[in-house]
Amino acid sequence: MAKAADISTKRLISLAPENWVKWVTKIPDIICGQLRIPVD
Fold first, then answer.
1. In 10 A of CB 22, how many CB atoms?
2. pLDDT tens column, 5-32
3. Distance CA 33, CA 11 (A)
4. How far apart are CA 40 and CA 27, in angstroms?
5. What is the mean pLDDT of the chain?
6. What single-letter DSSP state applies at residue 18?
7. DSSP 3-state assignment of 31?
8. For the chain, how far is it from start to end, CA to CA, in angstroms?
9. Does residue 17 contact residue 32 with C-beta atoms inside 8 Å?
10. Are 30 and 22 in contact (CB under 8 A)?
């Protein structure tokens, strides 16, 4: 079962993914995109 912190982190990222990436990387002008990883 997922811990409460895991659920909160996923929710934070899903609500504002670009702000989260800027905060984590400390790069204010970074542009976010979506990666699709193929499944074999």
1. 16
2. 567 777 878 888 889 889 999 999 988 8
3. 18
4. 33
5. 81
6. H
7. coil
8. 27
9. yes
10. yes
